[in-house]
Amino acid sequence: MFRNWLKRLTQSHQCRRKHYAFQSFTTEVMEVRQLLAANIFVATSGNDGAGRGTIDAPYATLGRALAAADSGDTVILRNGTYAGNVRVEDTNVTIRSFENEWAVISTPINDVNQRWGIRFSPTASGGRLQRVEVQGGYFTAS
Known about the structure:
Layout: H1 2-11, H2 14-36, E1 39-42, H3 62-68, E2 74-77, E3 80-83, E4 86-88, E5 94-97, E6 103-107, E7 118-120, E8 128-130, E9 132-136
Parallel strand pairs: 1-2, 2-5, 3-6, 4-7, 5-8, 6-9
């Protein structure tokens, strides 16, 4: 079915052929990004200096994990409470709790210098929070 569709497409108007080639290239780039995506681990017992973001050597803070994250990565928070006032800059970053654990991102509500628990930059499309509780922040939405 796909082969017939492709044959008809390549026999059609030149403009459509170029459009298809662009779509194909875009799809291939997305597949490569998924293959290179990493899991970055954070634990309250971790270490931002010596940690590598692995399950055996996690980072201690969400901010450090986000600094190490690239587009398509997943930041996995072990059970515990983590300081908020962090910003996600990269696209398609997922922040989630470790399986069968619960993580909390907490920010004071009375500190004007800590305005949000977590903020996704306008250019950070596709970002996700999964099974994470967000508390506080001077501003509740941004």
